């Protein structure tokens, strides 16, 4: 069997490896830091309720050091720095939280770029806001660090600086839902697969990115991500 059109698999580099990580799907967790939910005018998620999920296309990934084109259709591009979980194994059906970390291949730092004005308009009309999240180049991500190298970085700090100024910073311990719980809840909706990426939610301090802005994202002791917003 051959493909009628050129076919390619989006991928992310792996620190210290020649191989790359093939991306299957990109899942994102909303309202996973209480202070960010409040700054967006929403109620924080509660541990007794399921987390909020949305998706980005697999080919939205952008490598470290890239110049990212300013997206069409918006005048309010926002940054949201996040821990990213990369799955190296899948699971059919619901996986117990106690077993979920065994699926994790590694971790990275990423940015959930958001067309905030389009999101606000859609929310005001009660419409879906896929176009605000799932657009081209909307998922910058660092090289993935395998768990065998990093362990599980749950005591690390997540941060973002824009043009050298700190704009977002919080310990990962402030996440309402941890990695194991997120994978458990996600598996209630989807069969998890090797190659899935999960953006774990952002802390307070989200704000605009303009043409020419340079950003530096970091999960302390684990990974860094740099880039610039182009024209």
Write a compact overview of the structure shown.
With 231 residues, the chain is α+β, with helices and mostly antiparallel strands. The protein is 15% helix and 32% strand. The strands form 5 sheets. The chain has a 6-stranded mixed sheet.
Describe it.
The chain is α+β, with helices and mostly antiparallel strands and 231 residues long. The chain has one domain (23-229): Alpha-Beta Complex (Fumarylacetoacetate hydrolase, domain 2), CATH 3.90.850. It has 6 helices and 18 strands. The protein has helices at residues 34-39, 97-100, 116-124, 130-133, 147-150, 179-186; strands at 11-13, 20-22, 26-30, 52-56, 61-62, 67-68, 77-79, 81-87, 104-111, 114-115, 139-140, 145-146, 157-162, 165-171, 197-199, 207-208, 214-219, 223-229. A 6-stranded mixed β-sheet has the order 4-3-15-8-9-12. A hairpin with a 3-residue loop joins strand 17 (214-219) and strand 18. The radius of gyration is 17 Å and the shape is globular. The N and C termini lie far apart (41 Å). 39% of the residues are buried. The mean pLDDT is 95.
Note the main attributes of this structure.
231 residues; alpha+beta; Fumarylacetoacetate hydrolase, domain 2; six-stranded mixed sheet; five-stranded mixed sheet; 6 helices; 18 strands; 32% strand
Binned strand content: 25-35%
What is the terminal-to-terminal distance? 41 Å
**Topology as a string of helices (H) and strands (E):** EEEHEEEEEHEEHHEEHEEHEEEE
Largest sheet: 6 strands, mixed
- For the secondary structure, the number of strands is 18
Number of domains: 1
Radius of gyration, taken over Cα atoms and rounded to an integer in Å: 17 Å
Uncertain ranges: none
Oligomer: single chain
Residue-averaged pLDDT, rounded? 95
CATH class: Alpha Beta
Count the DSSP helices.
6
CATH fold-level topology: Fumarylacetoacetate hydrolase, domain 2
- Briefly note the structural class of the backbone: alpha+beta
Helix percentage range: 10-25%
Using the alpha-carbon principal axes, give the shape: globular
